[in-house]
Amino acid sequence: xxxxxxxxxxxxxxxxxxxxxxxxxxxxxxxxxxxxxxxxxxxxxxxxxxxxxxxxxxxxxxxxxxxxxxxxxxxxxxxxxxxxxxxxxxxxxxxxxxxxxxxxxxxxxxxxxxxxxxxxxxxxxxxxxxxxxxxxxxxxxxxxxxxxxxxxxxxxxxxxxxxxxxxxxxxxxxxxxxxxxxxxxxxxxxxxxxxxxxxxxxxxxxxxxxxxxxxxxxxxxxxxxxxxxxxxxxxxxxxxxxxxxxxxxxxxxxxxxxxxxxxxxxxxxxxxxxxxxxxxxxxxxxxxxxxxxxxxxxxxxxxxxxxxxxxxxxxxxxxxxxxxxxxxxxxxxxxxxxxxxxxxxxxxxxxxxxxxxxxxxxxxxxx
Length: 367
Hints:
- It contains three helices and 18 strands.
- The protein is mainly beta.
- The strands form four sheets. It has a five-stranded mixed beta sheet with strand order 2-9-8-5-6, with no helix packed on it.
- β15 and β16 (315-321) form a beta hairpin.
């Protein structure tokens, strides 16, 4: 990760999905995106047997020399001669791709942060918008840093069903509030299709805001000709709708209730100082709700105990400060970076034998 990216990694976060996207465009031939400076004027004296070959300095990577230069394939200007592929000025010679004075294409475009599986629903729409009935969507947002150019991008990938999208934006606003647009992808929308993928440049200040406080922004999609209607999804940090299954508990906590199943989510707000839980268990009414440290196939120590947010049979819903849960924003950053090392764990009782009756859901990798 480049120095520029490292400068923006906050709070010890291991930014997710630090994958390089190779920006090096092929320069092979005359139509390459980047022109190598090793070659010279494309119109040079000597055709086929001239001083510098057929087109003088236009061989392959613009490295200077051509196949039929003076001396032929092995002569001066030839494939292995001076100015050829391996000679002075060639692909690996002085002035070539890897030689002194060469011009390697900068390759340092990094995805610094990703929000995947953003659920866009009509129920999330907040005035002045009204939800589009029977519509729904899934979206993802990547924040990209290009250290070569010093620029920042927001990239969206969406699949929206139920209407033709004509407006797609990131707007400022916490859950249950609406606000102004900060990133507009609408100009990139072409012929109406359910799927979209595109990027726009954003200022560094906005990039930092999105990195530090994603819960203060949301993705909004609207159709044409139906007024102020939309579907919306918040950019939350966390793990959404993790499946709970009887097959996952590990001895001695592997007593299960046949047919039980469920989903559990945890998201973080206010700079990872607030943890919000949303869990539904069907066919089993647990007393304890835990998030533990441990990878698949292992039992591990308690990380969060959110049993206090139980609101109904098999239902846990509510927010608790991370400090009350005995953790810090830094430990939350570690959870977000290495989620696969944690799991949801629900117990029938806090005493034996009920404590050994459980249902469990392992976190996935976010990176």
